[in-house]
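A quick aside before the break. I want you to see a complete sequence-to-structure record at least once, exactly as it would be stored in a machine-readable document. Don't worry about memorizing anything.
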Amino acid sequence: MLRHVVLFRWAPGTTDAQVASVTEGLAALPAAVAEIRSYRFGPDLGLSDGSFDFALVADFADRAAWETYRDHPVHRAFIAEHITPVLADRAVAQYEVPG
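That is the input. The structure line, written in tokens, reads:
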């Protein structure tokens, strides 16, 4: 299994409504992209200095399934419309989950 982890830092001035729009859009993606096995996300709790603002963890059967998600037109449109306008910084990693 492949795990995909993304951390987002929002641009200054990003509103609660914009973050809510991101959350709603992410919640809709599993219905649009069948390759998603598990999809968890949410705002940082603010427990550590320097943390990113929002995290996403997604699981896929394999690299090909993740690539389908990565390139899926619904996913690409969501990024362009909801993430890119409010994004200041992003960190991303993919790794194999044993088992």
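Two observations worth writing down. The chain has a mean pLDDT of 97. The first helix runs from residue 16 to 32. We'll return to this after the break.
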